[in-house]
Amino acid sequence: MARMVNESGCGEETRSPEPQGPGRGAARAGPQHAGARELANLYSPGKRCQEWICVVLCFSLMAFNFIHLLANFHLGHMWYLLLGIVGGILTADFASGLVHWGADTWGSVELPIFGKAFIRPFREHHIDPTAITRHDLIETNGDNCMLTIFPLANMAFNFLTLSPAEIYHSYPWYCFVFALAIFVTLTNQIHKWSHTYFGLPRWVVFLQDCHIILPRKHHRVHHVSPHETYFCITTGWLNYPLEKLGFWRNLEDLIQGVTGEKPRADDLKWAHKVK
Known about the structure:
Distance between the termini: 22 Å
Order of helices and strands: EEHHHHHHHHHHH
Number of strands: 2
Largest sheet: 2 strands, antiparallel
Radius of gyration: 20 Å
Number of helices: 11
Structural class: mainly alpha
């Protein structure tokens, strides 16, 4: 029995197919789920090292760039600054949806290197959604920090090598890139907060209630099996328009028509794992 949840947190129950036969009953989600335990055990020391390096590099570059953005700020940049920030947030929200949709829908944990390192957390999350709340700062944010290192490093290089006049003319673009980098970096932390129902700082709850970051009730929509909608997890602003457009569904139909691959096949395999 699946529960169809709307954004207000209300819902109705609809029947969904369950595995039949001996030993094939519906597996209960959570940390005791056989697939969840196996996926959690695939988190390796090498992966942890990669995450530490990415977090340190990312936040060091972010601090460096922030100082230089402040040093080069002019009042004439104000409107460009605001537009850059809004554009960066929207781009980060769409990017979060694209990555989330891609990792949820396609690929396999068995893929060499990439599978265990980057597909594994998405599979674990659907069968143990609370696992993310037990991840520390490094495990939560390591992969997102990795994504922003190169644009932040390029920005830092420009601040060191370009003339003040060149920086002045490129300043709105730097504001966009910096806002994009911040919200991409924080996406999984925001996602973690959307699964945390106790002990959140008041300012986080305030941002969720104002829908400045992903609200908890809003994200519940995605966690209705088979997890086929509301993929944007930075602010969630783009989820409703993308759903009304049928964006992800049409993209899946196109890819399935071309490749023959079935969406979320690997995700369902892990969800039905019983031992």
